[in-house]
Amino acid sequence: MSVPTDRLAVVTSAFDRAMAAGHLDQAKDLLTRVAHDVSDPVHTATIARMEGQLALAQDDPGAAAQKLAVAVGVARTAGRIDLLASGWLADLGVARQRAGDLAGARTALEEAVELADRIRGADWATVRSLRALGTVLSAQGDNAGAADALGRAVTAAAGARPVDPDVVASVRSEWSQALDAAGQGEQARQVAAGGSPAAAPDGAAPPELTAEQRAAELAGALAELHDLVGLADVKAEIDRLVDLIAVQRRRRDEGKKVPEIGLHLVFVGPPGTGKTTVARLIGRIYMGLDVLRTGHLIETDRAGIVAGYVGQTALKVDKVVQQALDGVLFIDEAYTLQSGGEQDFGGEAISALLKRMEDERERLAVILAGYDGPMAKLLDSNPGLRSRFSTILQFPSYTPQELAEIFRRMMSKYDYHLSTAAEAALLNVTTTMTASAGPTFGNAREVRNLFEDAIRSHAGRAADDATVDLSTLEPQDLTWPPVGSPEAAALQRAQATATAAAAADGNPATSPSDGSVQEAHA
């Protein structure tokens, strides 16, 4: 017998309340009352998630990780990314971490953070994902990464509703501890005192770096930039910008008149092409060049700077800009600022931002990011935008070879490798990815999904067969596109069209060659 969707929602809500209150017997009883409906994948995934949560609460993280992996996999196949962002991936990451699988936990939590940040913004699901990621990174010895994650958690917690000062204080304490473990004692003390690494308590300026420290930071950031996969034109343009700034700084030091150099940039391109990563590196590069004091990155979007009431938008802009002073303000999907009607306050946000940019031109760099066409319309909507954002960096979609290299780097990070046959299959998969990519294709994000699906498939084989190598991925592990996804539907339509055309020409349809994407689904 199946359970109606509305009843499942009621039971799920009651289950969540019982779990939050620690009433495990009550939660278990609620779970046993829900019949399984195999015809509804979301129903199946929800039950699996509840079973996983209960197992985790009963101190069985191994069983919890298995159940939650099933829930995440079914939800992903059903296209319910909203469920993954709402805490399902975070649950999986926490279960894996408690089971001792730090690599698997990090993979799940990094995606959880990305999805929660993109879909939900500053809410408690985002905070939870970031805190869990910070714990895993700390356990792996990456204290700097943990400090970064927890700093972002503090920012998200400040904007989450309903307000919970106790949780904000707790996250801030964790951030301070992570900074201290990363060897950033002064920043840790500032955070513990209620400030941030970007601004010391009582408005005092953070300590100046020595010339040697700045040079080392610049060299390190440039090395990381050039180590990124692809993006040749982006790297070349940033190199030219670095040369321009460095030479003008030398001319200024010699007493020569120098033109004002705009630090503001526009990043355009599809999702998953490294825009946020490069923005973080830009902050470090500017710090290394001594044009920004700290170079930290503050990320926001329309929701972070546009209010729903008259007079509130400018205040939100001021608050975000204040956090970004001496660093970089990164506004993702910036084109949405001019997407509303006459009663929309996006235009007010643009005007307020331009004013603050002018007032703080020596302490602030702003990067606007989004799709190419909509971003061009945004820049044309206000003369002040086009004049202040004269440098536009194009982030192209990755090639099949580049996507394959991104996959290899993910594997290497977690001690996996490909068999010879899987190496050939990987390029077949990434070639199909780019050939069937639509305007919202996620590029590196899609590769991350491919990797997570691959290690899940590998785990299923290894769990049932002790002879399976624990680090080698095979062609059958590389399945793309996920069944039921828009890409799968598009690929099926293309194959049907090709088959019909071949039949009309009197030629039999040919089967895909060994190692193809289609055979990976067989």
Low-confidence stretches: 199-204, 511-516, 518-522
Total helical elements: 23
What pattern of helices and strands is seen along the backbone? HHHHHHHHHHHHEHEHHEHEHHEHEHHEHH
Rough shape? Answer: globular
Average pLDDT reading = 84
Strand order of the largest sheet: 2-3-4-1-5
Helix content: 55-70%
Q: Per CATH, what is the topology of the largest domain? A: Rossmann fold
Radius of gyration: 25 Å
How many domains, as an integer?
3
Summarize the main sheet: 5 strands, parallel
Descriptive overview:
With 522 residues, the chain is mainly alpha-helical. The protein has three domains: 5-120, Serine Threonine Protein Phosphatase 5, Tetratricopeptide repeat, CATH 1.25.40; 211-394, P-loop containing nucleotide triphosphate hydrolases (Rossmann fold, 3-Layer(aba) Sandwich); 401-520, Helicase, Ruva Protein, domain 3 (Orthogonal Bundle). 63% of the residues lie in helices and 5% in strands. It contains 23 helices and seven strands. It has helices at 5-20, 24-32, 41-57, 61-77, 81-98, 102-120, 124-139, 143-159, 165-181, 185-192, 211-227, 232-253, 275-288, 302-305, 312-324, 346-359, 372-380, 383-388, 400-413, 420-435, 444-464, 486-504, 517-520, and strands at 265-268, 297-300, 327-331, 364-370, 391-394, 417-418, 472-473. It has a five-stranded parallel sheet with strand order 2-3-4-1-5, with helices on both faces. Strands 6-7 form a two-stranded parallel sheet. α1 (5-20) runs parallel beside α3 (41-57) and α19 (400-413) packs across α20 (420-435). It is globular and about 75 Å long. The two termini are 31 Å apart.
